[in-house]
Amino acid sequence: MIDVQEKLQSTVHELHGPHPADPKVIKRLKNIEGQVRGILRMVEEEKYCVEIMNQISAARAALHSVGMVILKRHVETCVADAIEAGGTERTHIIDELMHVLSKNEK
Amino acid sequence: MIDVQEKLQSTVHELHGPHPADPKVIKRLKNIEGQVRGILRMVEEEKYCVEIMNQISAARAALHSVGMVILKRHVETCVADAIEAGGTERTHIIDELMHVLSKNEK
Amino acid sequence: MIDVQEKLQSTVHELHGPHPADPKVIKRLKNIEGQVRGILRMVEEEKYCVEIMNQISAARAALHSVGMVILKRHVETCVADAIEAGGTERTHIIDELMHVLSKNEK
Amino acid sequence: MIDVQEKLQSTVHELHGPHPADPKVIKRLKNIEGQVRGILRMVEEEKYCVEIMNQISAARAALHSVGMVILKRHVETCVADAIEAGGTERTHIIDELMHVLSKNEK
Questions:
Q1: Which candidate in D19, D44, D46, D53 is best for mutational testing of the C interface (most C CBs within 10 A)?
Q2: CA C86 → CA A18, B98, C35, C83, distances in Å?
Q3: What is the reported pTM?
């Protein structure tokens, strides 16, 4: 399963080429890294659990939001290209997308 | 709204005292910090978006799981104590819990 | 596992007695039943998939919201009583609550 | 906003034509309708709240799962066609998809 997955991923990646790293995504991820470090500090400093849980929710929401940015670009480029390529490329990229989406929602 | 919230939190905190920091929670949060740094590197190295999205889902799931550990202890200690204290303590802690849970699920 | 679960549930139920059915919850559930029937009709009438998906999201949100009402009352009554009873009642009801919450969020 | 949305939807719908109703989706939705009716009965019969919450989670999961079937077909047909059509069709359908996905996950 993993092999098929990896093979597919590399094929798709070859087809489209990598996306140049989005500076906004990088900036947001740096913020999230800081948020997680902040949560760690809150736990070490024995802050009130509800405050910690609220920060965890915020970090999860921020990660989700970055994921949506990456997902959008994925659909606009990789998925769109594979759909235009047709055939197994098209089937595979849609299966892969559905798989990502089903994980994403948990 | 924030003032009421903060006032409640400090009251509850005084009532129960802080929880000693759980070493397992700290360890897990350090791992999550590493995961986020890994995601950052994947973006910089222009990895395939699906791999990045999978790592984002994994980091979110890990955060959620730490949140559940903290939530459980919160219920066992702060919520349980406030319920036993009764009165407004009890009403407030349950309102606060419902508020946290409604955020948590997004 | 199921036996333990069921035994616990019946014990808890005996302890607290059933909650009288909340008319607002019943009204909301009737609305949700209507929403689901509406979705069914949209599928049969071959409506645009995005409209159908939006209605599915709305029905899921409505179910979630009813679940939160029931959860709140559960915490206020069953959980509170079991916490005051202490001992295994307390441990069990919290384990059960965490189990419900972990399912609820998917 | 709604007008734009509706206009887009009707355009897309005209482009692709409706999908013939999927008998499996209809069957599943009938089951979900039955599940919701079952939850209603459980509330009326004053069943244990945890059992009711579990059934609510199950109904939400079933709705989500039907939503994923509809989403997959939407991507395979409407989204794929609009991507091949290009231009504003392509931009619009992707925006709409992202909008649906962001709602779907709550």
A1: D53
A2: 58, 22, 42, 5
A3: 0.87
Helical pair D87-104 and D2-16, crossing angle rounded to 10 deg: 110
Summarised one tens digit per residue, pLDDT across range B47-102 is 999 999 999 999 999 999 999 999 999 999 999 999 999 999 999 999 999 999 98
b/e A92-101 (16+ beta carbons within 10 angstroms → b) = bbbebbbebb
A78 pLDDT higher than 60: yes
At residue A7 the predicted structure's pLDDT band, cuts being 50, 70 and 90, is: low
Q: What is the mean pLDDT of residues D96-102?
A: 94
Is the pLDDT confidence value at C26 over 80?
Answer: yes
Per-residue confidence (pLDDT) for residue A2, from 0 to 100: 46
User: By percentage, how much of chain A surpasses pLDDT 90?
Assistant: 75
Token pair, residue B78, equals 């702060």
End-to-end CA distance of chain B: 21
The verdict on a CB contact (< 8 Å) between A94 and D105 is no
ipTM reported for the complex, 2 dp = 0.86
Average pLDDT of C52-70? 96
The shortest C-alpha distance from C101 to chain B (Å) reads: 8
DSSP per-residue codes, D10-61: HHHHHHH-PPPPPHHHHHHHHHHHHHHHHHHHHHHTT--HHHHHHHHHHHHH
Contact A66, A104 (CB under 8 A): no
Contacts by A37-40 with C-beta closer than 8 Å and gap 24+?
A37/B33, A39/B29, A40/B26, A40/B29, A40/B30, A40/B33
Taking a C-beta distance cutoff of 8 angstroms, is the pair B78, B12 a contact? yes
Nearest CA in chain B to A62: B60
- Selected for mutation to probe chain A from D74, D79, D81 (highest A CB count within 10 Å) is D79
Q: Where are the alpha helices (DSSP H) in C17-86?
A: 23-44, 49-74, 80-85
| CA atoms of B47 and B38, how far apart (whole Å) | 11
